[in-house]
Design brief:
With about 120 residues, this protein is an all-beta fold. About 0% of the residues lie in helices and about 50% in strands.
Length: about 120
């Protein structure tokens, strides 16, 4: 059974930075594509960034391109999301996800395993 545990959320002023981490157990990173999604009140989980399981290729939502960076440490089995230049609209609950449904790489349907989420609040 794959388990994902996020950490690193918090309150930050606009323009600031946060680093989210996702500790994974029960699988090796090469088995799955890994991703970050975020949700906000009234908004379903939106794709933020993902990294392929078979190679170190990253994909980003347009809204975070150039500000966020997804990375994985296969030795520590940890996924991270470095978030710089945070904006008020980045506020939300951030979820780490693992899956290998390639038909939906940027959609929650493509991910079978989810963490519990970590809250990020950006004050304007």
């Amino acid at each position: 059974q794959v388990q994902l545990v996020e950490s690193g959320g918090g309150l930050v002023q606009a323009g600031g930075s946060l680093r989210l981490s996702c500790a994974a157990s029960g699988h090796t990173f090469s088995d799955y594509n890994m991703a970050w999604f975020r949700s906000a009140p009234g908004v379903e989980r939106d794709f933020v960034a993902r990294i392929r399981g078979d190679r170190d290729i990253q994909y980003y939502a347009h809204s975070v391109q150039g500000r966020f960076r997804i990375a994985r440490d296969s030795v520590k089995n940890t996924l991270t999301l470095q978030m710089n230049g945070l904006k008020f609209e980045d506020t939300g609950t951030y979820y780490c996800a693992a899956g290998n449904e390639m038909m939906y790489p940027n959609d929650p349907r493509g991910y079978k395993y989810w963490g519990q989420g970590t809250q990020v609040t950006v004050s304007s």
